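Key idea: predict the complex, not the pieces.
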Amino acid sequence: MQTRLFFPGNPSRLNTYSRQPESSLPPLVSFFLRRLLATLPVLFVVLAGSFLLLEAASGDAVDSYVARSGSMDAEQIAQLRQEWGLDQGPAYRFKAYASALARGDLGWSTAFERPVASVILERLPVTLMLMGVATALAFFIGSLLGVVAGANPGSFRDRFLSIGSLALYAVPGFWLGLVLIVIFAVDLRWLPIGGIESVASGKTGLARIADIGAHLILPVASLAMVYLALYLRLMRDRMSEIWRDPLVNALKARGLSRGRIIWRHVARNAVLPVITMLGLQAAAMLGGSVVVESVFAIPGFGRLAAEAVARRDTPLLLGVILCSAITVVIVNLLVDLAYGKLDPRVRVGR
Amino acid sequence: MTETYLHVRNLCVSYGDTAALHDVSLDLAKGGRLAVIGESGSGKSTLAMAIAGLLPRSARTGGAIEFPGFSHVPKLGKDIGVLFQDPSGSLDPVMKVGDQIAEVVMTHLGTGWISARVRAVELLDRVRIPKALSRLNSYPHEFSGGQKQRIALAAALAGNPSLLIADEPTSALDTVVQRHIVNLLDELVRDSGLTLLFVTHDIALASERADQIAVLYKGKLVEAGSAAKVLGRPEHPYTKALIGTHIGLDTPRRKRLTEIDASELQ
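Result:
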């Protein structure tokens, strides 16, 4: 029975190691689900931690409510505490929150006096749009300029772009936003000063889309410009490394044109770590959007988080954190899939 | 007397203060097979790269490299093909091998995409990649080291060059695969009348396959001539010593390996 030493347990299970688990779901969907399930423990720890932090802060949702409404007597306050479940201990409330969450219920927002899910659904699209457009712009313009700089490392163009991008990266996002507002909204009056769309304009269809677009230009620009520098530098540095690779010599020996070597080979290979960075930056973009949303008075997700903390609205804050975490996980999944498509040596989902 | 393909006249190459080649002159006949041999750092790769025009920008050169048969400066890829030592380093890891060969065909023969791909299949067939058509869309990492070197060879030959420069084409491969690649090179050179310049430190290989041998030592050409003469009746002490260091399967196991003592060669 020597083999039992190496294969403990039921020998018939051995087969399952060599065979793909059979599933009725398409491989892509089951890959997505498996990755989401794997993040559940992390999500739980993050939720419990945020709950405890908010619990440790002085005051509660009722204090915040009373401070805003002004006139309430002790009896009304006690009644409100009971209504919101704040007369119970934190352990009880966390258990209640977790069991509601397991049923798909995100709870009741005391600050907005509406279900958390409906508040989030209203705010999330705005931030996703802001983040998505800013990320796409930063990535495309950044890596294009990175190719221009990296095509000839050490040249004047390279030095100009590298120093310029470093300067841009050193500028805080909110300051850039304020400068853009002063120039384009206050002095030139080309663009709206803030908000996501004109109030009560009654615009519909294309006119409304154009209106939202005009409102997004400045926040997107101030968010994208900072991250653009990151992609530019990464692309440029990776390209200057690849120029020293024996591959480039081999390609020159085949007589390929310089343009072809730059675009089809050097830039193509250099873009891979930039794609990875794209996923990692998704979380930073969410953080950056909090600041930009405050500067431009955009009713987005980042501002919602700030409001939830200020109003001691525990279910709302936990809901915001949960949705942010899921967004970051999904963005990274998409990045992994794109990476698998771009690098034949890596295949995900197998 | 056959037509001369390549004249190298008093070639000097230096990197900064370090001289890599000093006053090297040699001729290569059309259709000839020249082996450049020497130890590491003797300047043999520098000679090959200087002829190919692939020296790094920091290199300073003197002397002349002439191609009497050409009215223009020979173009890399179209007139001169180069095969390198490391097969993995010569192929782009994220591009299909068919595309890597086809892009050379398109660049030099001016064909369209489809005929370039057809030509790529022919070339892969010629370098003995089994089931070439079905491997067109495979990536380099899906091939073995020997196969990668064959593919690199196919890419080097894609523009129909008349000179093939091979810089230690078998050093990164195991002995069995080495033999396959060498046989393949031999066959292709004979079939298509290529002129071949190959750099090697393998004397056995040079003696078998080359009709001319040039021996480099410390950047100087110490001996050059027909293979039979250089290896049969070596004149320079370094050549004699180099031949003495050769070991093969028939070398007695307990024999102490011969070393070259540089002080005796001055």
